[in-house]
């Protein structure tokens, strides 16, 4: 006997129970992440080309476009954790946000080429105004949270109009200042809105959503390793590429291990400050993982003689991305109760990685040495937590 999933045409958008047992990511949310990763991949590909061409200025474009992708993803994710009603209008608005993400992705090459892109702004506008519609629905259905929902809707609308107006501006400096000014306004909207009443997000659900996107973005690093393997096969197992493959796998495996070394939900249950630091800090986590994949892909180009960038530039691009990733996790874990020694070790690992990037004689050696540094950090964590368990603590499986 078949079972049909009945989707209601319309239901009241009531708040979800923040303590709902066994809540997990929905198929729609997983589909949503998959679409957004297309935009992330497009941004990473452009930064890959920038690294390979020895153009550090492209990092600014990567930072800017990645903010748009991450911010739209994050706003929807937190809203869904609080108000997902899974009726037809909710699904259609979600599809609209996904469509806006694809529009943005299509305009990323233009943005890297000229510093402005009407398609990127248009795609971002579609995503943001769809979120305004979401918040207006929540305001209509949830009287207790109406002030908060209307503050979100008004704040998003005003800032989005300013983003559209920014298309009329010209000049690198003016565009840069206006971008970061609007970023500050974007980040202030939730801070102001949540002061009028907190939204009932589900900590376990939010932790899972962040973790799943982190894993998906790590696919960029895996893709670079696969490209290195393919290059090695074409060139008769060239040693530089094999070293890069080994180092790349060590890096991504260690990144995964370090991300999940602490119970994820604890990062979102440490109070308002910890929640905002973790939520906002994941911009750097996601961006640094994607940038790591871009740097590895550029490393493949260098080894194959298809890039103009110097070994040091590529090495620093990789080391910088990995160091930022490690430092961000260190800050988040320290706010969740990590020991002072663990925090100090995390800071030191990032510093060593940067030294490796600056000093290594070849791209392959840089990648392998970076992977070994991260693997050492993993081994240190495993050993110290083993001591803690043997001293009477309890081990919690990752899940």
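Sequence proposed for the structure above (399 residues):
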């Amino acid at each position: 006997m078949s079972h049909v999933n009945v989707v209601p045409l319309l239901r009241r958008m009531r708040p979800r129970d923040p303590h709902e047992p066994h809540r997990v990511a929905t198929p729609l949310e997983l589909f949503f992440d998959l679409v957004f990763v297309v935009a992330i991949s497009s941004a990473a590909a452009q930064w890959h080309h920038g690294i390979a061409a020895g153009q550090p200025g492209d990092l600014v474009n990567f930072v800017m476009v990645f903010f748009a992708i991450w911010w739209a993803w994050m706003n929807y994710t937190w809203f869904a954790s609080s108000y997902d009603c899974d009726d037809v209008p909710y699904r259609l608005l979600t599809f609209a946000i996904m469509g806006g993400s694809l529009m943005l992705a299509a305009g990323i090459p233009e943005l890297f080429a000229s510093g402005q892109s009407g398609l990127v702004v248009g795609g971002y506008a579609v995503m943001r105004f769809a979120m305004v519609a979401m918040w207006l629905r929540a305001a209509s259905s949830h009287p207790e949270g109406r002030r908060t929902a209307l503050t979100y809707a008004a704040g998003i609308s005003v800032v989005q109009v300013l983003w559209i107006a920014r298309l009329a501006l010209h000049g690198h400096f003016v565009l840069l200042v206006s971008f970061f000014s609007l970023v500050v306004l974007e980040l202030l909207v939730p801070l102001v809105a949540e002061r009028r009443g907190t939204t009932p997000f589900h900590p376990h659900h939010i932790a899972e959503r962040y973790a799943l996107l982190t894993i998906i973005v790590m696919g960029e690093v895996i893709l670079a390793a696969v490209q290195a393997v393919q290059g090695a096969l074409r060139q008769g197992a060239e040693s530089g590429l094999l070293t890069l493959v080994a180092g790349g796998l060590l890096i991504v495996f260690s990144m995964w291990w370090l991300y999940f070394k602490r119970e994820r939900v604890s990062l979102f249950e440490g109070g308002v400050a910890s929640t905002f630091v973790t939520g906002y800090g994941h911009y750097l986590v996601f961006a640094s993982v994607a940038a790591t994949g871009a740097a590895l892909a550029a490393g493949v180009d260098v080894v194959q003689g298809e890039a103009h960038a110097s070994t040091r530039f590529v090495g620093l691009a990789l080391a910088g991305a990995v160091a930022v990733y490690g430092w961000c996790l260190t800050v988040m874990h320290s706010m969740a109760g990590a020991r002072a020694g663990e925090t100090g070790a995390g800071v030191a690992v990032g510093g060593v990685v940067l030294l490796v990037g600056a000093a290594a004689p070849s791209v392959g050696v840089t990648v392998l040495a970076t992977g070994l540094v991260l693997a050492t950090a993993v081994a240190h964590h495993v050993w110290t937590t083993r001591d803690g368990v043997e001293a009477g603590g309890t081990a919690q499986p990752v899940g």
